[in-house]
Amino acid sequence: MAKMSHAEYIRRETVTGTVPMVAGDRQYNFMDLFLATSGFSIATWCYTQGAYVAQYLSFKQMLINIFCFNIIWILIECIPVFFAVRYGIDLWIWLRSVLGKKGVAILATVISMANFGWYAVDSQLFASSMINLFGGFGVILDPTIWKPLLGVLCVVLGTMIALGGPDVIKWVNRFLVTALLIVGAVVVIICFTAVPLGDMLKVQPDTSLYESGIGRFMLSAEGNVAFAFSWSTQALVMPRLAKSEKSGYWATSLAYGVVAPFFVAAGGVMAIAMFVSAGYYESDPTVMLATLAGPGFALLSLLMVAFANIGTQGTGSYVNCMIVKSGLPKVSYKFLVFLAMIYVSILTVWGWVMDNFGSFISLAAQIQGPIIGMTVVDYLIVKKRKISLKSLYNIDGHKAYEFTYGFNLVGLGCLVIAFVTNFLFVYNPLTAEIKSPIFMVLTSSGYTAVCGGLLYWLASLTPLRKYMLRDRDEIEIV
């Protein structure tokens, strides 16, 4: 096979959804995928998440909450990485068999629009950090003017990375993640040297979130489960580039389950150190480093904030435009990237997502949760790891996944039931009202995943099984 030119490589990589990736075209080894995925997951919102949890839990509870809930759910939700690598397709291609092709087109677009809210948060945090950084050196920037300008600049620079495709993302993240992991370690060391560990252990959690300790622990857990779920619909796009199933699974799981929580924990440690040192909690790393280590050392945050947030913008734009292309494969990738740039810029200037961060991540996770549950159950139990590529791509008129006018009513029904029952009977993310003891066991996001998966499995035990597995005749002859 002739070596693929750079232009052809970019074209093939950025038109996912039109053809599966064959083994010879897969460019990512374990380290490539691990670094690219880690670069995607590291952004200033990790510190925002860590500071949120730090306020309501003790130091030890915070670390347990962050790492345990992230690791457990990430290991589960990344199981479908195996099919992503085996078949050379992403999650949203497989979901044509669970939701129907038109169902995927709609949900891929809706969820990507929600996912882009994260990148509005990312760009706003970038702007705030840059303003604070300049302020630390005596350069005062008017936030009303510079915050939207710097936020949009972050989006634009990220867009330039996204336009380069996976090859550019791979090389950017080889430098980015290595530097950021070193920075993260230095930040934690600074916190422990600036404030004695004993003083941080004595900090009492804020009881205003919920009256009982278990309530505060599980509400914080909801934030961490939602944080873990936020990667789910995006995580299974890049693994199709991996050369082996094993490297694809572990590179993805370690990036989202260990690296991202490490930076969340670093944010929590810095927030507690800030409380001990200054008497208030803070999530902006530039402010925290300037307070704990002096303005000169805050230059370190320039690397941490600028590179991390711009790199995340680029990878996130690529991944979410790929998700949309899975449902709308005929739309130009470049057009989607520029459209995403405009959309995220508007969200950045508007500021609603940042102002309602907790409700936003929980609400988004409750849409993604049922999809996670159904995908794992469908892959492992219902379809038993076999699928018809012919019907996924309408080859030779194979239409097993057309279902009912392009919609799989069973899969969509499970999603709706899980979402609505959670909202009505388990937890309201808009008011933070806990409505059922189920929340204290599974959290709200966890409930939607379990409910969606359980309903989908139960449906497969009924006469609906024939409707759900219309592809079995094709599997036997493939």
Name the descriptors:
478 residues; two-stranded antiparallel ribbon
Give an overview in words.
The chain is an all-alpha fold and 478 residues long. The chain has helices at residues 6-13, 30-41, 45-56, 59-77, 81-87, 91-94, 96-99, 101-136, 143-194, 197-201, 213-229, 232-235, 245-278, 285-293, 299-327, 333-350, 352-355, 357-382, 389-392, 409-426, 439-459, 464-468, 472-477, and strands at 427-428, 433-434. The chain has a two-stranded antiparallel ribbon with strand order 1-2. A hairpin with a 4-residue loop joins strand 1 and strand 2.
The largest sheet has its strands arranged as 1-2
DSSP strand tally: 2
Q: Helices and strands: which structural class?
A: mainly alpha
Estimate the helix proportion, in percent.
Answer: over 70%
Query: What is the strand content?
Result: under 5%
Unreliable sequence segments: 12-17
SS field, number of helical segments: 23
Query: What summary fits the major beta sheet?
Result: 2 strands, antiparallel
Principal-axis shape equals: globular
Order of helices and strands: HHHHHHHHHHHHHHHHHHHHEEHHH
Alpha-carbon Rg, integer = 22 Å
Overall mean pLDDT = 85
Distance between the termini: 25 Å
